[in-house]
Write a structure and sequence with these properties.
alpha/beta, D-Maltodextrin-Binding Protein, domain 2, 4-stranded mixed sheet, 17 helices, Bact_solute-bd_prot1, Sugar ABC transporter substrate-binding protein, signal
């Protein structure tokens, strides 16, 4: 889900996918060489309106070119970095940059229409490649060939209010780990009264379908079959998701009477101290503080309840199929410099980020493994300006969860599932079995057409 806050939105930390600004249509028509240099075009440069981010991006390109005098980098604005309305048109028209931004969910589509360069022979030249989490590398691997490099990765978790937990007699250092515990804790928080809601969930603008998917994954289920041809929502796991929501809404009254919520509603409630828990990625936390009136000390993060899986999102870069071997090599060097060096570059210069009041110390993105991860975490810890101890449960719990991306045809499927979730939250007598049966048929139709 690309428009719901499942992206970072603060200075110098991955703003590329979070600002809904007009895209600047730029092609990759620049000559591939200039004055003997290898020239590459790249996209996702912050717009001029984001002055600090733009400055950092330009500084990092200048630093790269100084270290690599044989490479000329031409950066293009493109906000949103990957606008679905123009993305396919740019690909089909041959106007995509040499090195271009993609969401995880784009990969198979871009490869399927033959617009991505095969990077398999070149990744050995990418210094950082072996340090990147395998599950993220796998996203850009199709039929054993490598077509892209991940840049960030985020996973869903449970954001909760420590102060409300304490007031309700709950231990804020022991967040719920099962859906049964979520329900029990939400009931105690709602009992505080004064308009306090124990648990909130989305059910409009496709966001209900998005969260249903996350909760289904957490139950151990899936939205579509492994081969992508059949719906798999009409299952015990699917019924468990909806029954839990129904019981919290109608039996416990822990979700409040106002429904058809979207992410902004949940953020407003959490920021004002009136919400106990909701599902979100770590990038929501600075939004809650900077835009919604929250306080870092009150906000904590736990892994997805259930202990089975979590929905992940993220992005990376692919290379235009028209790129020359020299441009591919130059592009990989640029990615190493900009995004893939622990504690350095556009996303990893934590000292620079802190100087500009960006939050440092959030648990994600966590791109690396082994020694590279340790180096990156140490650099982050040195400049941390948020209460990192509030996120330890999330870090610990995520190690045992399966990471799963969104289903194919996600937005169409989410539209169908939106109706299912909204019905359960607005109609006490909603027939869960019939809702899932009907949704399954509609999703089958979507998959057949795609």
């Amino acid at each position: 889900m690309s428009s719901t806050g499942f992206r970072r939105t603060f200075v110098a930390i991955g703003v590329c996918s979070s600002l809904a600004l007009a895209a600047a249509a730029c092609g990759s028509s620049d000559d591939e060489s200039a004055g003997g240099k290898t020239r590459i075009t790249v996209n996702c440069e912050p717009p001029r309106s984001a002055k600090v981010d733009r400055k950092f991006f330009e500084e990092d390109i200048a630093s790269f070119e100084k270290q690599n005098p044989d490479i000329d980098v031409v950066a293009h604005d493109a906000f949103p970095c990957q606008d679905p309305k123009t993305f396919d048109a740019k690909l089909a028209g041959g106007q995509m940059e040499d090195v271009f931004y993609t969401y995880f969910t784009d990969v198979r589509h871009v490869v399927g229409i033959g617009q991505a360069a095969d990077l398999t022979p070149y990744v050995k030249e990418l210094k950082s490649y072996g340090t990147i989490q395998q599950q993220l590398r796998d996203i850009y691997t199709v039929d054993g060939r490598i077509y892209g490099i991940p840049r960030t990765g985020y996973s869903m978790g449970l954001i909760y209010n420590r102060t409300l937990f304490e007031r309700a007699g709950l231990d804020p250092d022991k967040p719920p780990t099962t859906w049964e515990e979520v329900r029990a804790d939400a009931k105690k928080i709602a009992a505080l009264g004064g308009g306090t809601v124990g648990y909130a969930d989305y059910s409009a603008q496709n966001q209900g379908g998005w969260h249903f998917t996350a909760e289904l994954y957490a139950q151990g289920g899936d939205v579509v079959s492994a081969d992508g041809t059949k719906a798999t929502v009409d299952t015990p796991e699917g019924r468990a998701v909806l029954q839990n929501l129904h019981d919290m809404r109608w039996t416990d009254n822990s979700m409040g009477s106002k429904q058809l919520l979207i992410i902004n509603d949940a953020q407003q409630m959490m920021g004002s101290g009136k919400l106990g828990m909701y599902l979100a990625a770590p990038d929501n936390i600075p939004i809650l503080v900077k835009e919604k009136g929250g306080d870092y000390k009150d906000l904590a993060l736990a892994p997805m309840p259930g202990g089975k899986a979590t929905l992940i999102g993220g992005d990376g870069y692919m290379v235009n199929k028209k790129a020359t071997p020299e441009q591919i090599r130059a592009g990989l060097k640029w990615l190493d410099h900009m995004f893939l060096t622990p504690g350095s570059g556009f996303l990893g210069d934590y000292s620079r980020a802190r100087k500009h009041d960006a939050p440092v110390g959030l648990p994600e993105p966590r791109l690396f493994t082994g020694a590279a991860d340790a180096e990156d975490q140490e650099a982050k810890k040195a400049d941390a300006n948020v209460p990192v101890e509030n996120y330890q449960a999330f870090l610990d719990g995520n190690q045992n969860l399966r990471m799963k991306i969104e289903p194919p045809g996600a937005q169409q499927i989410y539209s169908v599932l939106d109706g299912v979730v909204s019905a359960v939250l607005t109609k006490k007598d909603a027939n869960i079995d019939q809702l899932l049966k009907d949704a399954s048929g509609k999703i089958d139709g979507i998959l057949a057409r795609s």
